[in-house]
Amino acid sequence: xxxxxxxxxxxxxxxxxxxxxxxxxxxxxxxxxxxxxxxxxxxxxxxxxxxxxxxxxxxxxxxxxxxxxxxxxxxxxxxxxxxxxxxxxxxxxxxxxxxxxxxxxxxxxxxxxxxxxxxxxxxxxxxxxxxxxxxxxxxxxxxxxxxxxxxxxxxxxxxxxxxxxxxxxxxxxxxxxxxxxxxxxxxxxxxxxxxxxxxxxxxxxxxxxxxxxxxxxxxxxxxxxxxxxxxxxxxxxxxxxxxxxxxxxxxxxxxxxxxxxxxxxxxxxxxxxxxxxxxxxxxxxxxxxxxxxxxxxxxxxxxxxxxxxxxxxxxxxxxxxxxxxxxxxxxxxxxxxxxxxxxxxxxxxxxxxxxxxxxxxxxxxxxxxxxxxxxxxxxxxxxxxxxx
Amino acid sequence: xxxxxxxxxxxxxxxxxxxxxxxxxxxxxxxxxxxxxxxxxxxxxxxxxxxxxxxxxxxxxxxxxxxxxxxxxxxxxxxxxxxxxxxxxxxxxxxxxxxxxxxxxxxxxxxxxxxxxxxxxxxxxxxxxxxxxxxxxxxxxxxxxxxxxxxxxxxxxxxxxxxxxxxxxxxxxxxxxxxxxxxxxxxxxxxxxxxxxxxxxxxxxxxxxxxxxxxxxxxxxxxxxxxxxxxxxxxxxxxxxxxxxxxxxxxxxxxxxxxxxxxxxxxxxxxxxxxxxxxxxxxxxxxxxxxxxxxxxxxxxxxxxxxxxxxxxxxxxxxxxxxxxxxxxxxxxxxxxxxxxxxxxxxxxxxxxxxxxxxxxxxxxxxxxxxxxxxxxxxxxxxxxxxx
Lengths: 388, 388
Description:
2 copies of one chain form a homodimer. Chain A is an alpha/beta fold. Chain A is built from 11 helices and 14 strands. The first copy, chain A, has 2 domains: 5-40 and 274-387, Aspartate Aminotransferase, domain 1 (Alpha-Beta Complex); 54-271, Type I PLP-dependent aspartate aminotransferase-like (Major domain) (Aspartate Aminotransferase, domain 2, 3-Layer(aba) Sandwich), CATH 3.40.640. In chain A, the strands form 3 sheets. In chain A, strands 2-9-8-7-6-3-4-5 form an 8-stranded mixed β-sheet, sandwiched between helices. The first copy, chain A, starts with 13 loop residues before the first helix and ends with a helix.
């Protein structure tokens, strides 16, 4: 049996195992990134035209592309509908970008930590993943400059707004500085913003893609976090030099994104009912965030440090006494608690012990306190055992 | 700008240009492979559970996997639901298979001619595409054996039932012989059957995957030709040794297939109303096939040879006086007729002049005769010009 060389880099299924374990109904899961069931909007299908059942264009539905371009321009990303490609969830943007840029040994530049599934697909295609450390307000600029002076990455992949996993939102100053550095060194930007609309303090900063003067860029978003992930409708917007290649790669991947989901997304994007839904969603998650923060204060104040997330779906904890948090998993699951160890979010997991990603959007509030309490107990037990 | 090496193999957009030109309303198009609009069934959405809006499993909906496995067992492919992976249209099976098997220079074995988009994605990943010639009842067996004796292809890709583009359906004897050869040489089979249910003479032969005793296999199908292509719901069924890798590759490509389309497909697969719809569809396309055959007899009998397709969506013409049919395109489009030249369906187009693929399912019957007549005139004109 001869598989491709890349298959040897398919990662083991630690994450899949955690999420599978978290499916058991008795488990209190902080592991996934699921929207709350209660906040999935009721949608109507009765008016959908029969023609949505036919094959469609690889680019996506023209009216949806127009609406997405309009939305991006309002955010400060100058673009036309002709630059918009509808994709099968923004995960597909990463697949297309990997195909466009990555050969074995191609250097790419990522935040540390970064989105796990991005890391995995870039590594699958053979990328050499360089990193720049994230601070509370964005990347360390000195280290970013240093990386760019000494390497020629094919692209930099950034999640500047409520990052998964760290919840970091770049400051205005760092957005501007990063754009300047990318222009200075001529590095292509891939900017991933699934969480932008899940803001709890009302802040909305212009994307970095909209600040570039010269560099090529791909800006990607999705309706998965704000409407219905089951539709699998995301989008990318690309600088005109990249678009034709991405379009061909999209066509070869799956011809086009399902039109049923595209039609449904179009009913919402730019509408007043969407604005109202977003407002309710932010309020709902803000309450969950606050309850989670209270539970963490009670049980984790002596164990870990964290920033209160101003958006997104996650708390990112840094243990005061670092340990490999993967070693907490068995104990946590034995007590019916699931969480995501921080190590896999780094290209070199063993150099980054001591972080935990906790999702606050999906847990039943009635079980939140008990789950956090049990998780803290597991941390204490393992730390005590290691100290002994 | 440094793209990956594979991007240099992204094909030029001849086909895209033809299909774009065919969009003009005045064009009589034999170029695409679209189902007839009139035969898209009316579907109901009112009973879809809200939970279909949430993220789902990468494997696909459990009930749909069960239904697809059941359907495959009836066809003669022994399998369990655990071997079924729901994909975003069967095009995605080709993407996953390319990732699983193909490095630069990997040999794969294909029918000549073969499905254009398969050829393109295998070449995109760097495959060295070997071929075996198709005859009216399947591949030339002596040449297949010879290829297998002298090469070790990573897989063989076959469309044994109403192939796109040639409309060939393998005979019982050749199905059995091909399975025997693949077992003898230990070659993995990828069997693609989008057209199986579009049979006009009621024939239904057991898939080759169901005849294998030892070799690994991937069997792939779709609801695009029989239900609604806009759902983008296909599936693959794989031997257990391949499944875990394909699942991880699926997850990294787009997390999972849209659940809305999966739910709709499940309402049909295995149902009586689906059987009834298929029966109506076969009758409808049989009538179109017969009308097309009559028009071809009138206008092409002295120009080309062809077999009357017993299923699928295409006539495959072989000109009596071969010429590069790509040179017919400008003239045809100037007369508002679109068709698909045969050359791109071969890995070495310049060695295979003189074929044309004509779709009979989508053309308005009222314009069929005029379209065929104009196309024949273009062929005559170009042949006369070349003879002059």
